[in-house]
Amino acid sequence: MNGWILAATVVMAGGGAAVVWGVSSGPLTRRVVAQNLTTSVACPTLLLLAQGYQRPAYVDLALLMALLGPVGTLVFARLLAGELAGGRASAWGLTWAAAALGAVVVVAVCVAAGPSRAMVKLLVTGALLIGGNLIASRALSGGFEGVRGD
Q1: Which of 36, 89, 134, 137 makes an SS bond possible with 95, Cβ 3.0 to 4.6 Å?
Q2: How far is residue 143 CA from its own chain's centroid?
């Protein structure tokens, strides 16, 4: 086991515990926010595992997840707009923590990868992960007109 795999284990254990707790307890708004957090935990884990195991295919999976995860959250927000209208999901601290985690992991893996096409793919994955997480969280908190039935 190297440092990359150990870091992936720590990220998955900590983030996975938060996701399981959020999905299994509380109101619907907390469960949808936890579903959004799943992508923010799984993508950095895959990037760390890709570096630890020297498997570039994991980066492709992280890129796909960073693209589709926030889209899934927006679909849930739209389909559950009536049920979500009663309570506002306010998880900005968690959102910024997940964005910071994604940024730190992407920068660390980019430094290890060095300048190459792989680094460009990592930067695109990081931008999609962080931007998608922020947009989906904003939509869940009622920041976009019409997304939550406002």
Answers
A1: 137
A2: 19
pLDDT at residue 143 in the model: 59
Tell me what pLDDT residue 145 has: 56
Token pair, residue 116, equals: 């190459």
Domain boundaries, given as residue ranges, for the chain: 3-140
Q: How far apart are CA 13 and CA 96, in angstroms?
A: 19
Q: How far apart are CA 88 and CA 121, in angstroms?
A: 35
